[in-house]
Design goal:
Elements lengths: L1 H9 L2 H11 L2 H9 L10 H5 L6 H12 L15 H21 L5 H15 L2 H5 L9 H21 L16 H8 L7 H27 L1
C-alpha cells in the first residue's frame, strides 16, 4: 500500500522531474542507459565486508548488518506506466539504504523521518514529504529533537546537495565515503543511536542515584 501510494503521488509531475534531473546529468544518463539493479544478486555483501572500513561499500554493508536489513526488501514498481519513469522510481527505492549508509541514520522511526525529510528536500517526491506525518508517532523528546536538530539538517543538506539519484553506487563502492559526502555536499548528522544510548545511560545513572539516596534515607 505504501509503495503504491508512493508511485501514484509521484505521477505525472514529480517522477518526470526526477527523470529530467537524471537526463541533465552525465552519470544520471548512464544510469538510465545501463539500468543497474541493487540487490544481493548484483552486489556481493561478502566482498563489501572485505573492503576498507572507510569505503562506501563497507559503510553500506556495515549499516545493513547493524540494522538487520538486506538489499532485497524493496518492492517492484507496478503503477507507473512509462518504462523509463518506472525505472527511476525503482532506482530511487533501491538506493534508499545507500542514503541511510551515507548519513548514518538508522531504520527506527526517528531515523526514517529524518531521512525522508532529507529525501523530500532533495527529490521533491511527495511520498517522502507525506512520510513526515510519522512525526506523530514520535515521543515528545524525539519530536523536539527532530524540529531542533534533524529537520534543519535535512532541509539544508537536501536542498544544497547534488541530486543523489545521480550517484552510480555500484561505481562508488571502493571510494572513501567521506570523499563522496564532500563531493555531494552532505554533512553527516549527529548519530541518533549514540544520542539515544547516551540518554539511556543518563537515565540509568539518575535512577541508580535515586535508588541509592532512597536506601540511605531508609537506613
Amino acid at each position: 500500500l505504501i509503495a503504491a501510494l508512493g508511485e501514484t503521488t509521484a505521477t505525472p509531475v514529480f517522477i518526470y522531474r526526477l527523470r529530467d534531473a537524471m537526463l541533465s546529468n552525465a552519470t544520471g544518463r548512464r544510469i538510465l542507459r545501463d539500468r543497474p539493479r541493487i540487490s544481493s544478486q548484483t552486489i556481493s555483501v561478502t566482498k563489501l565486508r572485505a573492503l576498507p572500513q572507510v569505503s562506501v561499500g563497507h559503510a553500506y554493508v556495515s549499516w545493513l548488518d547493524r540494522e538487520g536489513v538486506s538489499p532485497d526488501t524493496r518492492d517492484s514498481v507496478k503503477y507507473i506506466d512509462d518504462e523509463e519513469c518506472a525505472y527511476v522510481m525503482q532506482r530511487y527505492r533501491e538506493s534508499h539504504d545507500f542514503y541511510h549508509a551515507l548519513t548514518g541514520l538508522p531504520v527506527f522511526v526517528e531515523g526514517e523521518v529524518a531521512l525522508k525529510a532529507f529525501e523530500f528536500a532533495n527529490t521533491l517526491l511527495p511520498m517522502a514529504g507525506l512520510s513526515l506525518f510519522a512525526i506523530t508517532r514520535l515521543r515528545p523528546a524525539e519530536r523536539t529533537r527532530f524540529w531542533n536538530t534533524y529537520l534543519p539538517w535535512a532541509a539544508s543538506n537536501g536542498l544544497r546537495s547534488e541530486n543523489i539519484i545521480n550517484v552510480y553506487w555500484e561505481e562508488q563502492l571502493e571510494r572513501d565515503v567521506d570523499d563522496l559526502r564532500n563531493e555531494l555536499g552532505i554533512e553527516r548528522p549527529l548519530d541518533l543511536r549514540d544520542i539515544r544510548k547516551s540518554l539511556r545511560e543518563q537515565k540509568r545513572t539518575a535512577k541508580e542515584k535515586r535508588d541509592m539516596m532512597g536506601g540511605l534515607r531508609a537506613d
